[in-house]
C-alpha cells in the first residue's frame, strides 16, 4: 500500500484538489442559486418589518431589497399577502401572513349594584386591550332582586376567536357604596339609600347624622340588614368656585383704582375667599380694557370673571346742584349761594361765582343770574337761574295806563270794546291773582280777563259800567250806561256780539246758547 501511494501520490493529490474544487463550486452554486427569501407570519398589529425578516440566512442581507410597498399593507387586519423581494436584481415572491393568536388582555372587576340590576357585561371590565375588535358577553341571571352575591362569568372575545374569561362577583345592595356631597348641600337618608320609600328604615338616623355637610371630609356609614353588613362612604367635598360678581368702572386719566372697586359680590360656603387681580392695568391707555379677577377658596377652587375698566379724559366741567327758579317780591334780598353746589366727577366740590348784574330786584319782571364754575383741568360750566320779581298794584296800574294811552285813549265805548277784542287774544286762562296784569303781560286771556280790561278802561274814561255774567259764570261781559240807557258790550274774541245790545238782543245771540243772567241783579237794558 505504501509503495502504491508513493508511486501514485501525484495522482492522489491531483484528485483531492479536483474534489476540493468541485465541492467549492457546488457550494458556490448552492449559495448563489438557492432561494434567498422565506415566507413569514407576524402577529396582528406588528407595526414594523424589514427585509431581514424574510432572509433565509443573514449572509444575504447585502444587495437585497423589498419591492412591494409595505406602506400600502393594513397590518391591523388578518390577511395573506404576496411580497416581492430581490437579491442582486433577481426577484422572488414569498408570503406574508398576518395572524391573530393572542387572546385579549383584560382587567376584570367585581361590582356592587342595586337589587333588580340587569346584567351589563361591560360593567365587569376595568380595561381591555386587543389588536382586533372585541365582544364582551356574560352569563345571564334572570333575577337579582335578592341582596346577595351572584357569580357571573364574563368573556371577552376578539373577532378571530381568541378569548379571555373570568368568574366575577355581582354584589347587590340597597345602600350606595360611595356618595359625593357638595360642601354646604343638604344630606339625608335619600342621599345614600337607592330606593328611599322601600329602604329608608334599613339605616338609622344616627348614622346619617355622622355626616357634617358643612365640613369637608370622609364619613363611613354602617348598617346591618338580614345579618349582612353594608357600608357607605360619604365624601363631603368642595368642588365649586366662589360666587363672584363684578361691576364695570370708569375713571379719569391720571387716576388709579383697586380690584376691590370692581367686586360687587364675593362669597363661598367655605368662608374663606382670596381675590386676585390677574390683569395688569394700563393706566396710560385711554379707552376700555378688560379686567380679569380671580376668586380662590381654601380648597383651591377658582372662579374667574371679567369686568371693563374705561379710562376717560376729563373734558366735562362741574355739575351744578340746587339751582331752582326763584320768585320774590320787589326789593327783596336773595342769597344766591344758599343750597347751591358745583360738583366735579374728578375733583369733587368746586368753587363757583354768580353774576347778578342783569337782575333788577326793584322792578317786576323775569331775570337770569349766571353761575360759573371751573375744575382743575380748566373745564368750565355755566348755568342760568331764573329770577322772577313779582309785580305790585302800582306795576299793574302803570302797565294798564301804558296800554290805555297806546290803544284806548279818546275812543268811544264801541271803539274801546273792539280794540281790546282785537289786541288781546283768547285763551282759557282766568289770569290768576291779577287778571289785568296777566292779560297785558301775555296779550291773552279768557272772557273774564277781557271784561275786566274793558271795565277798567271805561272807569278810567269816567263811564258808568257793570261787570255781568251768566248764572253759571261760564261767560263774562260788560253792561254800560250811556246816553241815559244801559247796553251790553262784549270784548271777548269770537262770535259774541260786540254791542251795543239790548237784553233781548244779547240773550238771543247765538253765542249765548240760551244761557241767561240773573236779571234781578242788573239794570234793564231795553
How would you sum up this structure, described in words?
With 526 residues, the protein is α+β, with helices and mostly antiparallel strands. The protein has seven domains: 1-34; 40-99, no CATH class; 105-173, Immunoglobulins (Immunoglobulin-like), CATH 2.60.40; 178-237, no CATH class; 243-312, Immunoglobulin-like (Sandwich), CATH 2.60.40.10; 319-389, Sandwich (Immunoglobulin-like); 393-521, C8orf32 fold (Roll), CATH 3.10.620. Helix content is 19%, strand content 36%. The protein is built from nine helices and 31 strands. The chain has helices at 2-33, 189-192, 196-199, 205-208, 393-408, 413-423, 435-442, 447-460, 503-508; strands at 40-43, 64-66, 79-87, 90-99, 105-108, 111-114, 125-129, 134-138, 149-158, 163-173, 178-182, 217-225, 228-237, 243-246, 249-252, 263-267, 273-277, 287-297, 302-312, 319-321, 326-328, 341-344, 348-350, 352-355, 365-374, 380-389, 425-426, 444-445, 465-469, 476-482, 485-489. A four-stranded mixed β-sheet has the order 1-4-3-2, with no helix packed on it. A hairpin with a 2-residue loop joins strand 3 (79-87) and strand 4. Helix 6 runs antiparallel to helix 8 and helix 7 (435-442) packs across helix 8 (447-460). The longest helix has 32 residues, at 2-33. It starts with a helix and ends in an 18-residue tail after the last helix. The model has no long low-confidence stretch (mean pLDDT 94).
Amino acid at each position: 500500500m505504501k509503495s502504491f501511494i508513493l508511486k501514485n501520490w501525484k495522482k492522489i493529490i491531483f484528485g483531492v484538489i479536483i474534489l476540493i474544487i468541485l465541492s467549492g463550486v457546488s457550494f458556490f452554486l448552492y449559495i448563489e442559486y438557492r432561494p434567498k427569501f422565506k415566507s413569514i407570519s407576524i402577529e396582528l398589529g406588528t407595526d414594523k418589518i424589514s427585509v431581514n425578516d424574510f432572509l433565509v440566512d443573514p449572509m444575504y442581507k447585502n444587495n437585497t431589497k423589498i419591492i412591494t410597498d409595505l406602506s400600502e399593507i393594513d397590518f391591523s387586519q388578518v390577511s395573506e399577502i404576496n411580497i416581492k423581494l430581490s437579491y442582486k436584481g433577481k426577484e422572488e415572491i414569498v408570503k406574508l401572513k398576518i395572524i391573530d393568536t393572542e387572546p385579549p388582555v383584560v382587567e376584570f372587576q367585581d361590582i356592587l349594584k342595586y337589587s333588580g340590576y340587569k346584567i351589563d357585561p361591560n360593567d365587569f371590565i376595568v380595561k381591555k386591550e386587543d389588536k382586533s375588535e372585541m365582544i364582551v358577553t356574560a352569563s345571564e341571571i334572570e333575577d337579582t332582586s335578592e341582596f346577595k352575591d351572584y357569580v357571573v362569568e364574563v368573556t371577552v372575545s376578539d373577532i378571530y376567536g381568541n378569548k379571555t374569561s373570568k368568574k366575577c362577583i355581582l354584589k347587590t345592595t340597597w345602600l350606595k357604596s360611595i356618595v359625593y356631597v357638595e360642601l354646604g348641600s343638604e344630606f339625608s337618608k335619600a342621599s345614600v339609600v337607592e330606593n328611599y320609600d322601600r329602604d329608608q328604615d334599613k339605616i338609622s338616623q344616627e348614622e346619617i347624622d355622622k355626616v357634617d355637610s358643612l365640613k369637608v371630609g370622609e364619613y363611613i356609614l354602617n348598617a346591618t340588614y338580614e345579618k349582612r353588613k353594608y357600608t357607605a362612604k360619604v365624601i363631603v367635598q368642595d368642588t365649586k368656585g366662589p360666587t363672584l360678581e363684578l361691576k364695570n368702572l370708569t375713571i379719569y386719566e391720571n387716576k388709579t383704582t383697586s380690584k376691590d372697586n370692581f367686586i360687587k359680590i364675593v362669597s363661598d360656603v367655605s368662608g374663606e375667599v382670596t381675590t386676585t387681580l390677574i390683569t395688569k392695568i394700563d393706566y396710560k391707555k385711554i379707552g376700555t380694557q378688560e379686567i380679569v379677577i380671580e376668586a380662590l377658596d381654601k380648597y383651591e377652587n377658582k372662579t374667574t370673571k371679567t369686568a371693563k375698566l374705561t379710562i376717560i379724559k376729563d373734558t366735562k366741567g362741574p355739575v351744578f346742584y340746587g339751582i331752582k327758579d326763584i320768585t320774590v317780591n320787589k326789593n327783596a334780598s336773595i342769597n344766591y349761594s344758599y343750597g347751591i353746589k358745583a360738583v366735579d366727577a374728578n375733583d369733587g366740590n368746586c368753587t363757583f361765582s354768580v353774576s347778578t348784574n342783569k337782575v333788577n330786584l326793584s322792578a317786576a319782571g323775569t331775570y337770569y343770574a349766571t353761575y360759573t364754575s371751573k375744575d382743575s383741568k380748566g373745564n368750565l360750566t355755566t348755568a342760568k337761574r331764573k329770577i322772577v320779581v313779582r309785580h305790585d298794584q302800582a306795576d299793574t296800574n302803570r302797565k294798564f295806563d301804558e296800554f290805555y294811552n297806546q290803544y284806548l285813549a279818546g275812543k268811544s265805548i264801541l271803539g274801546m270794546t273792539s280794540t281790546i277784542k282785537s289786541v288781546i287774544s283768547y285763551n282759557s286762562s282766568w289770569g290768576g291773582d291779577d287778571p289785568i296784569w296777566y292779560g297785558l303781560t301775555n296779550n291773552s286771556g279768557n272772557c273774564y280777563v277781557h271784561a275786566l280790561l274793558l271795565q277798567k278802561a271805561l272807569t278810567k274814561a269816567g263811564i258808568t259800567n257793570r261787570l255781568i255774567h251768566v248764572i253759571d259764570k261760564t261767560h263774562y261781559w260788560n253792561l254800560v250806561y250811556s246816553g241815559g240807557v244801559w247796553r251790553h258790550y262784549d270784548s271777548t274774541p269770537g262770535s259774541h256780539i260786540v254791542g251795543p245790545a239790548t237784553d233781548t238782543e244779547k240773550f238771543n245771540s247765538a253765542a249765548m246758547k240760551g244761557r241767561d243772567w240773573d236779571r234781578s241783579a242788573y239794570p234793564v237794558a231795553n
